[in-house]
Amino acid sequence: MRREVEIRLRDSSLRVTEQRLAVIEAVEYEGKHQDAEFIVRAARKRLPSLSRQAVFDNLNTLTSKGILRRIEPAGRPALYETRVGDNHHHLVCRYCMSTVDIDCSVGSSPCLQPLNDHGYVIDEAEVVYWGVCPTCQSSN
Length: 140
Known about the structure:
The protein is α+β, with helices and mostly antiparallel strands and 140 residues long. The chain has two domains: 2-71, Winged helix-like DNA-binding domain superfamily/Winged helix DNA-binding domain (Arc Repressor Mutant, subunit A), CATH 1.10.10.10; 86-139, Dna Ligase, domain 1. The protein has helices at residues 2-11, 18-29, 36-46, 52-64, 134-139; strands at 69-71, 79-81, 89-93, 99-102, 128-131. Helix 2 (18-29) crosses helix 3, helix 2 crosses helix 4 (52-64) and helix 3 (36-46) crosses helix 4 (52-64). It starts with a helix and ends with a helix.
């Protein structure tokens, strides 16, 4: 994984730094669909000297370069993931807020073709499904 991440960083014209590697690895291995505060704690396990601001700066840079994806479900802070480059969606539990990936139900990117694009060039669609996860179903 680390070698692959280093290649992605270089291909995005970013330097490979221990800070960036710690943030990406925290998202990939400990924090899929987690918020920045969780990622700060997880990245500090890998690099204890990492500042909170450095994590936030790296999350912004890595998102802008397409290495991480930020999603913003209603009523939640931004969440981060390493699954990029496809048009998948998310399913969020209304009770515990667990979040999972959902592949497009038809084709590779049907949501990018609305009936009327109003002249926009559309490059992303965000669909969030809401429901109740199996754990919360059994406890309610």
